[in-house]
Amino acid sequence: MRVAVTGGGGFIGAHLLARLVGAGMDVTLIGQDIGRSQYVAALVAAGAARFTHCDAGFRDEPAVRTALADADALVLLGYVAPTASSPADRLLEEFERNVASTGRILRAAEGRVRHVVFASSDSVYGTPVRTPVRESEPACPRIPFAAAKLACEQVVRISCAAAGATASILRYSIVYGPGETGSRTIPSFIRAALAGQPPLIDGEGLDEHDYVHVADAVGATMNALRRHADGVYNIGTGIGTTTLELAQLVVWISGGRAAPLRRAVDRESGRTSLVLDTELARSELGLAPGRSLPDGLAEEIGWFKAVAPAEPDRVLMAARA
Predict the structure, then answer these.
(1) Residue-wise burial string across 124-151, b where 16 or more C-beta atoms lie within 10 A, e elsewhere
(2) pLDDT tens, 50-76?
């Protein structure tokens, strides 16, 4: 299989690239650059994967068409974060940087690519009335990021239907694991605990989320690609964990000395629960989360102790299995 990938140098993308190359697939990374992953850079330098430069918005359609000329499938992991501070401006940026660019690359892919995998998010559900939430439940995004993801889903489905292609819309829950950096919740908690500081929780920490290990998320993505699965799928574990429980787990597993610390927020949003019903993905994609949250956190904490942040890709190969 010949696969084109956007966002291949990101956290999920680097793990997916390892699996694609390991499966013997022909991979082309498309985008403005290959990202910051040293592991991805090494694969490209070794010729195990190709890289085709395109502008971030995929406005150079001839270049995009050339990059997709031999592709059987397209995996859309790329995302460009907005820089604006106000919600209205962020929403406008989201649509300009992500929704419009998704439409452009799909237009260039028309008549070439037979299957598309799009990385969406559980945030499209907003605050569901009940959980676990099924794919059939109405989407109700509450933030610009989620609104853009839902709009991209529609662009993918409409474009693929018009072109006679299939599309896997994957609504990932919170993905974590080795290689995760930045200011996201789990790496922030881990850094604090390893430094002997208390992980900081906004509010009471009673909000509940679904955390899935990156290896399990990538395994489902690979199956969606191989099976040309056509539909919307929740990618998670079906198990909810509160932010307070998560912080306590991180402190306990890491041997931290300071208990989590709650800090006041301007307005409490109350307890929210966003846990995914994964029955459809289990039956059609073979989703079978193999790592419990404590085991997955222990793996990520070990990765932080060993290599982060100086050499964040040394153990990526070991973590991809």
Answers:
(1) bbbebeebbbbbeeebebeebbbbbbbb
(2) 999 998 899 999 989 998 989 999 999
